[in-house]
Write a structure and sequence with these properties.
single chain, alpha/beta, 12 helices
Amino acid sequence: MVTRTILTEQEWMQREKDYRAWWEGELKRPLVVLECLKDASTGVFSSVYRDLHCFGLDMPAEQAAEQLEQSFSSLEYLGDAFPRWWPNFGPGILSSYLGCPHDYADGGTWFHEIPNADLASYDIADPQNSPWELRTAEITRAAAQRLGDTVVFGFPDIGGPLDILASMFGSAEVLMTMLEHPEAVVNQHNKVCSAWKHCYLRFKDLLDSIDCIRSWRGSWMPVMAPGDTYPLQCDLSIMISQEMFSELVMEDMRQSCRTVSYPFYHLDGPGSVRHLDMLLEIDELRGIQWVPGAGAAPAHEWIDVLQRIKEAGKLCQVYVSPEGARAICETLGGEGFLLCIGDGALLNLHEGEACMRILEEFL
């Protein structure tokens, strides 16, 4: 096992104290997460948090884990950032577990519809013995032996059940069937929800069974929690009405918020905002990750959305520039926010320290 220290134990204790206070609504400042490169270069997150499909099914898991470990030596963790790892097999990997073919290209995974599959009759079952779910567990165990308690381990990006259906059968087919045969979508959606829950709990049990890792958990979000945490989602919601969202998605969201100890919701794009009030009514939902999406104004310009989240008593995570983080703190106050500096790009250490100076009065 690796013995190298990324954060000191004192730094870990401070992170855990601050994050616990944030989750409980007791931290009187924002959390600011800034991961940066130690040297003078700049880079992208995907170069550090690699898509594990690049290793295929054949590379020994121990060899893959050794390559993953090397990534952490290049990073510095400023503010409330922390070393983190999750088995990144692309967004919505449950679709692959359930039979979706996929390609790995240009550093990412692309899922494709199941050929000649009929949405209404396709057999959706618990994918416990899927080769890719088994591979996810295998690499996670190997990574635990390499990284130990030097990082927070997180959950894979399983995806959201309705988005999984769209990956399996195509968004257009799912939407058309909603209108013409809604009972078929409800039936298959329920089966995916069941598979999602079983998959999530299996991975939770796996992490809990590994003694050498930290007890805190994460996900693909830059957040850690004293128990299991996950960003629930329904990106297809931008294409359905509030009535459909209420009838098809909300019960799953309520159930999932009872399954996950520290649940968040990934709110993606302006078209999803019409569902926000329903989501904010879920008592167990701890917070909202707001991502305006490509082509939209940056997160700090959506003050009305951020204010609604805050006034509902929920936490909020956004990706912002240092100036955007400052604007949020000046307008709404930083309490309850996790401000992750950057959106896909990694600054070097000199640039990162300059960013932190911009925000020091709010910390």
